[in-house]
Write a structure and sequence with these properties.
With 296 residues, the protein is α+β, with helices and mostly antiparallel strands. It has three domains: 17-84, no CATH class; 89-152 and 163-212, no CATH class; 240-295, no CATH class. Helices cover 47% and strands 15% of the residues. It is built from twelve helices and ten strands. It has helices at 21-34, 53-69, 74-80, 94-101, 139-144, 166-169, 171-187, 189-192, 198-211, 240-258, 263-276, 282-295, and strands at residues 41-42, 49-50, 81-84, 87-90, 105-111, 120-126, 132-138, 153-156, 159-162, 196-197. A three-stranded mixed sheet has the order 3-4-10. The longest helix has 19 residues, at 240-258.
């Protein structure tokens, strides 16, 4: 009798769904090691830097967890979701799948003349309740946002290169993605959980980089006033009793001259005088008191 192993075919396959944060992290680690999730790079050329592996793994963990919250299995999350400027986003082809799975219906169409200002993409979402919400985005909207560019070349780091932007190569798809993004936010926020369409998020990042004009060089600030002169040191009257009446009164006069118009400083001089008044004769006390009173 031969030893035969029977293989069973058929049956529905279910995605592996992690049950703990450790399971999610392990999946992110495997995605990173397999090359499905790559480290982000910033900068250009020799100045480019790559994020550390732990940052890539943390980003992958967050993407998988966000996908599970909106009903996207881990493997699809790695392929269809991304983090842009700290926010989880979904590719435009992923958004309809998320909405369809939750009972929404979508209808898309164009109006206007192709490539003209009135060329407009429309996206209508029908909620499970039957309510319809429409989003739209036109060429004139793209121009207003600084996205529409039909120039076949562009300047990049001092060199002229072919224009490889998505808005130049795939204008129809980009208009549709924007219309879908508006419809999704207005009519499917409960299903998408705040997920933004990736193309829209990338456009926003592009707008921040390219649309905002460069600030002019800040001119040097002229000197508006001459430097504040150093405040003369108030003559020390602690030792005045040893100097005699005339020396004490002379120092007091100089000190009050420096403190003119400054009540707080005059009050300090008066307190110093009171501390040493017992060391002065009656005539000097009277003359000093009159000088302080006049200064106040």
């Amino acid at each position: 009798m031969s030893n035969v192993t029977t293989l069973k075919a058929g049956g529905a396959l279910s995605p592996i769904m992690p049950q703990t944060i450790e399971d999610v992290y392990r999946l992110a680690t495997m995605a990173f090691k397999s090359g499905m999730m790559k480290p982000l790079k910033t900068g250009y050329g020799q100045n480019a830097t790559e994020e550390p592996p732990e940052a890539t793994l943390a980003r992958g963990t967050m993407i998988i967890m966000q996908g599970m919250e909106i009903g996207v299995p881990p493997m699809q999350s790695i392929q269809l979701l991304a983090m842009i400027n700290g926010r989880i986003t979904a590719h435009s082809e992923a958004v309809p799948g998320i909405l369809w799975a939750k009972g929404f219906k979508l209808r898309e169409w164009f109006t206007g003349t192709e490539m003209a200002d009135d060329w407009t993409a429309h996206c209508e979402i029908t909620r499970p309740t039957g309510e319809k919400i429409e989003g739209k985005f036109s060429v004139i909207d793209a121009k207003t946002a600084g996205l529409w560019d039909r120039n076949p070349t562009k300047e990049s780091y001092g060199k002229t290169k072919p224009n490889d932007s998505a808005w130049f190569r795939y204008p129809q798809r980009m208009l549709k993605a924007r219309a879908l993004g508006f419809a999704g936010k207005d009519g499917g926020a409960d299903a998408l959980k705040g997920i933004q369409v990736r193309e829209e998020a990338e456009d926003m990042d592009r707008e921040m980089r390219d649309v905002t004009p460069a600030l002019p060089a800040v001119p040097s600030v002229p000197e508006l006033a001459p430097p504040i002169p150093e405040i003369p040191t108030i003559p020390d009257i602690d030792q005045t009793p040893k100097l005699g009446a005339s020396s004490y009164l002379a120092n007091l006069k100089d000190a009050l001259a420096v403190a003119k118009g400054q009540p707080e400083l005059i009050a300090e001089i008066a307190e110093e005088h009171e501390a040493h008044v017992v060391d002065l004769d009656d005539d000097t006390q009277a003359r000093a008191g009159a000088m302080i009173e006049a200064a106040e």
